[in-house]
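Re: Re: token formats

Sure, here are both.
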Amino acid sequence: MEYEGLLDGLLAVSRSAGEVVRQDWSGAREITKKGRIDLVTQTDMRVEELLREKLGALLPEAAFYGEESSDGKGPGELAWIVDPVDGTTNFAHSIPFVAVSVALWADGRPVLAAVNAPMLDELYHAARGRGAFCNGAPMRVSDCAKLVDGIVATGFPYAIERYVDRILAHMRRMLLATQGVRRPGAAAIDMAFVAAGRYDGFYEYGLKPWDTAAGWLLVEEAGGRVSSMDAAKPYLLGAENILASNGLLHEALSEILRKDLEPGRPG
């Protein structure tokens, strides 16, 4: 695989970024707001600058598409897609579900991925066609084949007012159909947990490319499936909604979610 030789460098950069999160964990948070519930901290900015510098040195020809510095036009043909602190609200409240998420985007798909959850001491990675790993050990999605035995995760978007009715309808259906629903507040970790077989599925509205690019590859390389909430439609980077699963529960989860998709909106 053309970019596989960059993997060791990517993991080293991810570890360095995770150390910045660790260093700032016990200090005072400098928090500003991008929206009513959309926070940004100095740590977000510090980590993104570190990633910009080190990933730029690793692959100079790649663009840099980060949460705090994207131009809104998409990553282009070759780019690092970066969320410096996925779970900023968690970080602001010292909740350890926080991750540095990095994916290399090439040929219209993620080809390398690293999700470092430093406060959990877990570093996930994947390379297209080479499998998915947690702390160097291979990981696979679960073999859960019945919804009633499954644990699913979800998240709540910053644009909560737009989606709240659908979210509540989905939540009711999921609670009645599954063993339980979790909401840790960091999509990259949610998708990594699907890849690791801890969750059997994950769905959410309103995510951005930096929220999903790395987790998307982790799930697929661990043997899972990623699509729109309507399983008949592929997931497109930056689409309005996403469904990731172990594959076995994908159609059943999609059936629940499709019932509440807003008519006329892409599924």
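Second one below.
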Amino acid sequence: MTPGDATGGPTRTALVTGGTGGMGRVIAAKLAADGFDVAVAYFGTKDLADATVGEIAAQGRRGAAFAADVADEEAVSALFDAVEDHFENLDVVVHTAGINRSAALVDLDMTDFDAIHRVNVRGTFVVDQHAGRRVREGGSIVNISSHVVRVSPPELSAYTASKAAVDAVTRIFAKELRGRDITVNAVAPGPTATTAFLDSTPPEEQQQLASLSPLGRLGRPDDIAAVVSFLVGPAGRWVNGQVVYANGGVV
């Protein structure tokens, strides 16, 4: 008998890339709480990936971690093969993997530019390609963008350009999947209190960024996970081809 989800229906499977990061880890745990079995793709420390799988298991769901470079077509093809072999199906892909290097445009090392666009743009193309080929009817694809596309902060030109590309890919891809009953959306977080953000941002800058929101605080990873949960759940089926800003009202 196929195990069921929390609603008594058949089990659904989600793949979260960047599943060892603060945002990806919380999204993976939230999807598990929603009744998904969850595959975690990571590029880096296996111990962190195993910790995410442990959080999935704590929600009573199956989890597994797979190493993959999201910008490498062969590696991503092997990743999707492994997920399907392990879980038998795939219903949701949440692509959170990305990198950032800050510098003024005139000072930016082009090696950093190439690295940002390889992971953020090429990686989105590669993951979305395979998601579009593998996700079952009734499924969802969510790319993680950023509110920097709207606010255009200094010293983030390369990163902002890469996330603008993510937005464009998302809108076009939703149209290209016409007839498949698969939604494609992006979530654009504002400043979010992940461990990496808190460790790399001085307290005074954290306070300044928190003050930009009318709500007077930084975002939390669970704020973003809740938006993803909505988009991939039954209540979000009529939201498609959209970039959803989850930034506490920063304009």
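Residues 213 and 248 are 5 Å apart (CA to CA). The two ends are 50 Å apart (CA to CA).
- S.
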